[in-house]
User: Fold 28S ribosomal protein S30, mitochondrial from Ceratosolen solmsi marchali.
Amino acid sequence: MNSYKVNSRLLSRFNSLISQTQRYLSAPAEVEIDESDKKLFESYIKPKVEKIEEDDVKFPPIIDNSEIGKEQRKRQRWFDKIRQLGIVEEKIFELNMPKYYGWKINKIEEGVLPYDPLPQAQYITRTHLANTVNLPKYYDSVLSAEELNSLVEKIKNQVKDALVFEFYYRNRDHEYNSEQLNDKCFMDNVLAKNVSQQINSILISNLCPTNVHLIDTQIDIEPRIEAFWAFGGLEQPEKYKKFNQFCNPRIHRRYPERLNQYMKYIGKPILHLRHNLPLKEIISLKDSEDEKLDIPINKFDLRKMGYFQSRERATIIPGFWPGDYSEFGFLSYHSIGHLKNRPEQFNDNVDAIIAQAIFGSYSWLYTQACYQGFSTFQDPTYPLVNQMILTNGQLWNFCVYQLNTTTMHQDCIQTNPRKNICWVTDSMKLFDRIENGEVKGFNEDVLRNLIKFYANVPQIKEGVNMKPYLEKEKLIANIEDSERRIWLEEQYKHLLSNRPRHKLPPEQYHYQWIYVRKFNHFLPWYRKSPYDKGINVYNRKLDDHTPKYIPRCLRTNRKLKWGKTFYPEIEKKTPKLTKNPIFTLW
Assistant:
């Protein structure tokens, strides 16, 4: 009864309003209405708006509210954050933010290849292998036949003298011990290194007068190459398969069929040549989307193929630090001495050389693309090209690689049409043998390919923004705030050092697994670990730690005893507030 009385009182207050609105709605168009009633009505009820029928009506997207859809949107927000960060080091820093102790990665080392590595190498780098045994046709127009032959005649004798010295006259007994001298793999690497450095110096000194671009090249001896990328096309790990098989879908969250697995490549080239301009592309980005460019599908877990997993940081290093003037790869030398350690029954030396060329070229170009502002979640807007030489001093392989895409994570592995392309020649002997200080069976075709690589002139990409995702600062060194610049520089170098944490992550010992995981029996003396409390220590974020303590004598403000941290963040541009009119109903 009380509620009825209250409602009746409220309705009695609006009787005049209801009567006026009824008159306004029921009145025909010809009848004039008092303006006071009209204004009163329009203040409460908005006037009718005529519906405009259009053919191209844009509706908002339908949002997937499932757990998988929510996680996908969460990943996309992280991808967008990496793209919006305007400094190269901050983008690499952000890749490490989700994991305090590092990512669980599949480790790929140069020269450590399992049996039949080529299909897996093509699949996890999205590389199409061109069905040719020669260099691309583009290299036929680098030099004319007359110029090429004259250079071969000029350089041939110098190369022969270098080969005779390294393979015949040089005594290495005082350089290495007996075990190293008897190790065929080690000696092949030594010969490859020495011969490559000798030939590189000969070619540069003879070609510089006619090829001015070689003067600006930067040479790195045994640089550090590390690449980290996400790949989402492998099969689901067994523990996730079992969880999806036995879980209750009403309670538990099912894992998607495709999950990101993280790859880390560690390269050890003999030497690198870099330039401030990129090499000319072989094909366009549109041509890389051709469906005829096939890639073998090999979804097996890398552990089944013979690779190992470890927990390491997401390090991206192309052999130099960000801000170097020569930031594009020109040529790289690699050793194939590891073939001596491969079992003879494998009989896959050709595939091993091609797989080494694919891993090495993709990783070097990918790290260069990251220094231009791209990442494993953002494709480059222009292709990058690399030239690679694989040798042991006598056998020579030439490789040309074009990087067109770097995004291969679980959300785009099936929709990305781009492919990377690799051209690799057959193994060519530079000479047959050396007898009495003379080279027998010298192959001039190897020297011709070498000259073509060095004569390939880098070019400016006109009308292309080389760093579209970077701001004006671009580097940590250009930050005006000295405190933020010093902090980011120290933390960035510490991340890339791959040093373990001072306090190692807690582990579960065998007795803990027996009493808790197997029999679920807590003894009085048992000390619980974070795993017993349902805490996964490997999900700890990089910024989840106590800041640096500032002694009282060094504080500018006595109350602030913790130092500042400058982890990557996007500056939120808050809109200016405008004074909106306040509407009152009654």
